[in-house]
Amino acid sequence: MSSESLLRFAKMARFALIGALLSAAACAGISATAFGGAQLALPGPAPRPRPSGLAAAVTENAKCEGCHQDIAKEWRGSLHQQAWHDPVFQKALAIEPEAFCRGCHAPEADASGEPPKAAQDVGVGCVTCHLQGSDVVGTRAVAAKAGAHAVVADPRLGTTDACASCHQFEFPRAKGLPMQNTVREHASSSFSAVACQGCHMPAVDGPSGRKHRSHDFSVMSDKDMIRSAATARALRSGSRAITVSISAAGAGHSFPTGDMFRRLEVRAEAVDADGLVIARAAPVHLARVFGDHTRPEDGAVRRVELADTRIPPPGAGPAREVELELGVDTRGLSVRWTLAYQRMDHAMAASFGVEQARDEIEVVSGVIEPVEELKK
């Protein structure tokens, strides 16, 4: 692991320890079992525990935004707040209008039908994580005071369990096959002791100078985070090919993770001294590959995972070796190579209105300089 990755891990571990200490201290105050003597529900898809219905949840969400303006500013436009309105999700939903999908992307509404606009606009809101029954919950307890509500302590909000219901799930009607497997991947990594919040909700300074956990939930918009996920190096393998070795670094799960269509593209091209491209290798893609299997006993079609060539989580597997054939003798040529992160393949991107060339993120790139002779 590089010194940069070690430093990143140390920071994440420190944040996790601080959160754990705060949570432990909170248990001495109002506890998560205060609500009817039973443990409160963790964040998750619909149906949410809403005794007073959607209208009250939307009203409460607006109150959160009004009082916690710095956090609300981070949340607005985030992947959580835009969960329903995201154009890629909307096109996918049009193809498969499943209640299963609506439950995660508009968790404040009844998933059996089209959610009301109010629930669409809230998306995954403040109330989805912090309003359980009639209680406002957080990682530590806060007593009520004039003009401010009490906060019930639920230390689990600072753990990976708070993310699991929406980021670890199986295909509908395909028990045993994970559609998203991020939480299990994280559990197998050397970062398993660091909660998801360590990376995806880093401590930041608010306008008042008081630190809080960021609520912008950046992924694609945080290119530095994507680039920190892996390291790579490339060497010639004979006169007509190169081998790119890719290792996990800062990500605490497989890379890429999350949506089943995300992938890495490894590509290379040989160029002469004037920069003219002489040859390009066929790109190699690292991703999960799925197919449909028909069960002979009842004819039901079940999706199955055929392969997973992604970068394994840190500590859970060796570096991924990718060979790219250039088809010409490259010893007198430079070879430019790139590892790029893409949300989906080119055909799907075109159908979903995603401009692949602008949407992708370059993770690592390099140049192998020309040589006159290769060592045998």
Taking all residues together, what is the mean pLDDT?
87
H/E element string? Answer: HHHHHHHEEEHEEHHEEHEEEEEEEEEHHE
Question: Which structural class do the helices and strands define?
Answer: alpha+beta
- Figure out the total of helices: 13
Can you count the beta strands? 17
Radius of gyration over all CA atoms, rounded: 24 Å
Describe the structure.
The structure is a single chain. This protein has helices at 3-26, 53-67, 69-75, 87-95, 99-105, 117-122, 126-130, 161-167, 182-187, 197-200, 223-227, 346-351, 356-359, and strands spanning 131-132, 135-138, 152-153, 168-171, 174-181, 203-205, 211-213, 230-236, 241-248, 263-271, 277-280, 284-286, 288-294, 301-308, 320-325, 334-342, 361-368. The two termini are 30 Å apart. Mean pLDDT is 87; it is low at 1-37. It folds into two domains: 3-159 and 195-213, no CATH class; 223-368, Immunoglobulin-like (Sandwich), CATH 2.60.40.10. Strand 6 and strand 7 form a beta hairpin. It is of the alpha+beta class. The protein is globular and about 80 Å long. Strands 10, 11, 12, 16 and 17 form a five-stranded antiparallel β-sheet that branches. Strands 1-2-3 form a three-stranded mixed β-sheet. The chain has a three-stranded antiparallel β-sheet with strand order 8-9-15, with no helix packed on it. The protein contains 13 helices and 17 strands.
